[in-house]
Design a protein that fits this description.
The chain is 19% helix and 42% strand. With 149 residues, the protein is α+β, with helices and mostly antiparallel strands. Strand 3 and strand 4 form a beta hairpin. The longest helix is centred in the last third of the chain and has 15 residues.
């Protein structure tokens, strides 16, 4: 399926993972959002569950094995060109995940992967919606009891 100017929306996943007061981000290598920092993730493959997709994408993109804990939100990401045609359309499922193994690396579809302090978010090129979402989830998580794994 062609991702640019698709015939129908593409299902995608992303993970939000915290390590102390830092969040895992990747610098996008491809459009949409090339050069921006984002939550790691990607497209769901045919025959793959959304949970399976987020596990696979984090392994491929960041070298980490993760366990999806819960779905945080589902939303449309639609980018139109200058003529109003839909250039990209993803239906994204955002998961709260925990790392259960692996070593952080930069893999496919990203220029860089790293833990970013929540205080650094304003300094990075990033979609404002992503920045707000990270802050909201971080605030909600800080109110939950800490469970040692």
């Amino acid at each position: 399926m062609n991702r640019e100017y698709p015939l129908r929306p593409i299902a995608g996943v992303a993970a939000i993972i915290f390590q102390g007061h830092a969040v895992l981000l990747t610098k996008r290598e491809n459009p949409p959002g090339k050069g921006n920092w984002a939550l790691p993730g990607g497209a769901v493959e045919l025959g793959e569950s959304v949970k399976g997709a987020v596990v696979r994408e984090l392994q491929e993109e960041c070298g980490l094995r993760v366990r999806p804990e819960k779905v945080l939100t589902v939303f449309d990401s639609i980018t139109r060109d200058e003529e109003g045609r839909v250039r990209f359309h993803y239906v994204l499922v955002e998961f709260l995940c925990v790392v259960i193994g692996g070593v952080l690396t930069t893999g496919t579809d990203s220029e860089e992967s790293r833990w970013v302090s929540l205080t650094e978010l304003e300094d990075l090129p990033m979609n404002q919606g992503t920045r707000s979402f990270i802050r909201k989830v971080a605030s909600e998580q800080s109110k939950r009891p800490i469970i040692m794994q």
